[in-house]
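Q: For a teaching handout, I want to show students what a protein-ligand complex looks like in C-alpha cell form. Below are the inputs, and the small molecule is magnesium ion. Please produce the holo structure.
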Amino acid sequence: MTGATAIVFDDVTMSYDASGSAEPILEHVSFSVQQGEFFVLVGPSGSGKSSLLKLVSGIALPAAGRVLDDEGIAVRAPSAKRGMVFQSVDGPLFDWLTVRDNVAFGPRVAGRSRAEQLTIAQRYLDLVGLATHETKYPHELSGGMKQRVQIARTLAADPRTVLMDEPFAALDAQTRRVLQREIARIWRETGKSFVYVTHDIREAVLLGQRIAVLGRGPRANVQRIYEIPLEYPRDELDPRFAELVKQLEADIEREAGFQWSSI
Ligand code: ADP
Ligand code: MG
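A: Here is the structure, written as C-alpha cells, with magnesium ion included.
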C-alpha cells in the first residue's frame, strides 16, 4: 500500500514485566495502518489485542521496537490525537455529567468556548443519533446508548485516529448489529483512521478494509493481513461475505492450529 500512515509498528516486542524476565506478550510485530483506513485486528482471547491497542494509544510502551504515529514520531504517552472507545459501557462515562457535557468534555479541556463546545457536542450527538437525549444522565441510558455517547465523546475530541477495543461485545446481539452498521457509516462520514479490535470474524469482515490476524500468545504476532474487497455498506447476505468469513476461519484454523469457533 502507498500513502501516508496513521500508525506504524516496527518490530515491536512488548512485556508487562519491566524487568524483562517474563515471556513477551507480543514479539517482533510489524505492520502499518494507512491514514483514513478502517483497520481491524482479530485474534483469540488473551492473544494481546488490547495490549497492542495500549501500545497505539501510548498507555503502554514497547520493550523493543517502535510504534510511530501519523507524523512518524514515536508514541511515548497518550495524546488527544488518538481517541479510545472501550468495551465497558459503565466505566468510561462521567456519571455526574449530562450526555451533552460528556460529549463536550474534549472540546472543554481543549479550551474551546462554551458556545463552541455546545456546537461540537450537537454535531456528534446528531452523528450518533442521540440528539434528543442530550440532557439525560448516563444512568438513564441503555448499554447501546452509552456506547453511542462514548463514540460521540471520543470523536468530539477530534482525534486523528480512533481506537476501538471490542466496543460492542457487551451489548445484546440486536443492538450490536445496529451499532456495527453505524460505525461503518460514521467512519465514512468522518474520514478518520480507525483501528478496531474484535474476536468476531463476521464483525471483522463487516467492517474492515483490511483485517490483521493475531496468533495465539504469548509471543503473539500478526500472522496474516487480508484485504476485504467488498464495498460499503456491506451485506451479510452477499455470498461473497459468507465465503470470506469461511476462508478466514479455515486459514486461521490451519495456520494457528485451533478452531476459531471454539474460543
Ligand atoms: P486480548 O485483548 O487479546 O484478550 P490482552 O492484551 O488483554 O489480550 O492480554 C494478552 C496477555 O497479556 C494475556 O496473557 C493477559 O493475561 C496478559 N495481560 C494483560 N494485561 C496485563 C497486565 N496489566 N499485567 C500483566 N499481564 C497482562
Ligand atoms: Mg482485550
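A: Two things your students might notice: The helical segments are 49-57, 99-103, 105-109, 114-127, 143-156, 173-190, 201-207, 239-256. The longest strand covers residues 5-14.
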